[in-house]
Amino acid sequence: MAPRERKKTTAVINLLAGGTAGLCEALSCHPLDTIKVRMQLSTKGSAGGKKAGFFGTAASIVKKESFFGLYKGLGAVITGIVPKMAIRFSSFEWYKTMLANKETGKTSPTGVFFAGLAAGTTEAILVVNPTDVVKIRLQAQHTSVTEPGAAPKYRNAAHCAYSIVREEGIKVLYRGVFLTALRQATNQAVNFTAYTEIKAYLAKIQPEKDDLPSYQHMAVGLISGALGPLSNAPIDTIKTRMQREKATSGESALGRVSRISKHLIKNEGFFAFYKGITPRVMRVAPGQAVTFAVYEQVSTFLEKFPLLSGKPAVLDA
Questions:
Q1: Domain range for 135
Q2: Cα dihedral 192/196/198/203 (nearest 10)
Q3: pLDDT for 312
Q4: Range with the poorest average pLDDT among 15-29, 137-151, 194-208
Q5: Which three-class secondary structure state does DSSP give residue 149?
Q6: SS3 for 50?
Q7: Using CA atoms, how far apart are residues 131 and 114, in angstroms rounded to an integer?
Q8: What distances in angstroms separate CA 244 from CA 57, 132, 148, 200, one per listed residue?
Q9: 81-125: pLDDT as tens digits
Q10: What's the angle, vertex CA 206, arms to CA 24 and CA 314, rounded to 5?
């Protein structure tokens, strides 16, 4: 018996399954993202001449801001999770269909790669960049060494977004959008391609299984999720530094990228581009493991409901 090929899911199923998967990912992995951002924003000598590592950064956050400091910016993430995941999976399926062979209806690995590239770009522009700016501003509130003990400026995600738009203009929410799009595009291109190919391989060598078990979906998601961050860490670090800054009149986006890059190399060394790579891989890889495992299970469950799937109910023999 060959493993079943997943039916094309509807937009409603993509919304519900993707949103549920994204919520589970955010709740389980957000602390790692906060640690990653703090490590990327740390500068030479900001810790009394010592370089805080992963555990040192985590301990510092908990000590100064309590355990819940690890969840700063979670509101902005959750607010964007449902539309982001809905757009990611829906657009990926749409692009994949557009790039499929007209005769066989199948999409080649190259087509899957470009579908992932386009899906990542779409989600970055529509959802990810604005929520990233808000999230990073919230996560960075206690990193200043020049204003010790200063009260947090932003109360929550909504207040942060409102303050940014009021004080700096709505364009600030799209600062670094090119880098965000580049990061998301490469992430999803690698992510979907690796996931699709490894999943197909596992299905091929296990013809007795009607469908892959959840632990295999999770393992494949873990592997595919780790590849993106390793390939685009410098992009993510520059983007994080750029989004943390206040608006500077007369400076172009390219000028900011050049200035931040030169500053990193001159003052912190080449490997500063890879600051936070450990927690980022630890954040993204398990996140994708959770996302794909939950998405597959929830999608399969929702497909049983005719009102959601848009197809007549079919009873198993």
A1: 11-144+154-306
A2: 160
A3: 58
A4: 137-151
A5: coil
A6: strand
A7: 25
A8: 18, 10, 18, 41
A9: 778 888 898 889 889 989 999 888 899 999 999 999 999 999 999
A10: 65
In terms of average pLDDT, the best of 30-34, 85-89, 141-145, 166-170 is 166-170
Number of H helices, E strands in the chain: 11, 0
The dihedral formed by the CA atoms of 118, 120, 126 and 128, expressed in degrees to the nearest 10:
-170
Cβ–Cβ < 8 Å for 177, 257: no
Residue 241, token pair as written in the block = 């530094």
C-alpha span between 18 and 16 (Å, rounded): 6
Q: How far apart are CA 137 and CA 164, in angstroms?
A: 9
Per DSSP, helices labelled H in 42-73 are 54-65
Contact status, residue 153 vs residue 163, Cβ threshold 8 Å: yes
Domain harbouring 278, CATH code: 1.50.40.10
> Within a domain: residue 4?
no
Domains of the chain: total = 1
Q: Give how far the C-alpha of residue 284 lies from the chain's centroid of Cα atoms, to the nearest Å.
A: 7
Q: Flag whether 134 is in a domain.
A: yes
> Is there a domain that residue 6 lies in?
no
How many Å separate Cα 184 from the centre of its chain? 7
Residue closest to 130 by CA, chosen among 181, 94, 92, 96? 181
Instruction: Flag whether 311 is in a domain.
Output: no
pTM for the whole thing? 0.71
Q: Is the pLDDT of residue 4 over 50?
A: no
pLDDT of residue 10: 77
Note the pLDDT of residue 148. 54
Residues contacting residue 140 through CB under 8 Å, at least 6 positions apart: 37, 38, 41, 244
